[in-house]
Design brief:
alpha/beta; about 325 residues; 6-stranded parallel beta sheet; 3-stranded antiparallel beta sheet; Rossmann fold; 2 domains; 11 helices
């Protein structure tokens, strides 16, 4: 059996109907015969960063350190999957496992290779670093329009919203800015939301340093050709910068800042054409590829944020079919 950690799609309390993801979960179970574990992590503002990350990781550790036997799970065949904020938490859990290099449990058969100091050998998600064997339990990751960073709320995908989608999208810039603030434990006042939307939470030197990761020039030409105008940012707000700097540059909040990502499990990244998070997903795919992480980036130009929860959508059906195929091939 194959476990799947499917996170909820928000850091913030939302009035989602009970069983909001049941259709997605049941489809995966029916198509693939898998076990799905949906993590009911706590939400901000009562539980701000990093509590949701820690809770998801705690479930993961409990699963691979004993609970797998209870559910008849092969702990070497795990996929982490989530959409939106759940996509953020999923890839952060994967990055944490890579950084910690968890030791192989007794029930894993060991593979021994000779390697020189500092060399790395890779065999089916098993890594031998300086002769030490460890198992990366995440076999693959599926990230559906994931939240990857909060450093540019004027990217082309945000500009598309203002010029084409204003008032019609399920996820809008003001709501996203509010969620960022609440998740970071920063007062989500109207003034702070406006400052965040204007990128005033970043000091000039930080904004310049980040361009190597988030520059509009890194996006596909079709993403930026009509919406690549560089808007001058107003002066940074010192108080907001100070609050943001406390956790805003932590890779567990902004996974695009993760370092030494070589060895992360293969990833399927889903982006939607009508989504302010479109550019973040595309940039994260590029970031992973720079570390030779196998990436399948599926972009759906006619889709929108939240589409997988719309049962009558043809785009939704296509996305879920593609996800099921990816899981079938990678687990």
């Amino acid at each position: 059996m194959l476990p799947r950690a499917l996170s909820k799609s928000s850091w913030r309390h939302l009035k989602l109907a009970e069983g909001h993801y049941d259709n997605v979960i049941y489809m995966l179970i029916a198509r693939l015969g898998i076990l799905v574990i949906s993590i009911d992590y706590r939400l901000s503002p009562e539980s701000p960063y990093p509590e949701p990350v820690n809770e998801c990781e705690a479930v993961f550790h409990r699963l691979v350190n004993g609970e797998h036997e209870r559910f008849d799970i092969d702990p070497r065949r795990i996929c982490v999957m989530g959409d939106s904020a759940g996509g953020n938490l999923s890839t952060v859990v994967a990055q944490r496992q890579l950084r910690k290099k968890l030791p192989s449990p007794k029930w894993c058969c060991h593979t021994f290779l000779k390697c020189s100091m500092g060399a790395t050998a890779v065999l089916a998600n098993r890594y031998l670093i300086c002769g030490a064997d460890f198992q990366l339990y995440v076999n693959c990751q599926v990230l559906i329009y994931p939240v990857i960073h909060s450093f540019d709320l004027k990217s082309p995908s945000y500009q598309i919203y203002y010029k084409q989608l204003c008032g019609t999208s399920l996820l809008n810039p003001r709501l996203m800015a509010r969620w960022y603030l609440l998740y970071l434990g920063i007062p989500a006042t109207p003034a702070n939301i406006e400052k965040f939307l204007a990128n005033r939470h970043l000091r000039r030197k930080d904004s310049e340093r980040l361009q190597e990761l988030i520059s509009h020039e890194l996006l596909p030409a079709e993403f930026s050709e009509d919406y690549s105008e560089k808007q001058a940012d107003p002066p940074p707000d010192d108080d907001l910068c100070r609050l943001f700097n406390k956790n805003g540059f932590d890779p567990d909040f902004a996974p695009i800042l993760g370092k030494d990502l070589f060895g992360l499990p293969p990833a399927m990244i889903v982006t939607a054409g009508y989504d302010i998070l479109r550019d973040e997903g595309a940039l994260y795919a590029k970031r992973l590829q720079s570390f030779n992480v196998p990436v399948q980036w599926n972009h759906y130009p006619a889709a929108y944020h939240g589409v997988i929860n719309m049962p009558s959508s043809m785009q939704r059906n296509q996305i879920l079919d593609d996800i099921a195929h990816y899981l079938d091939m990678n687990l």
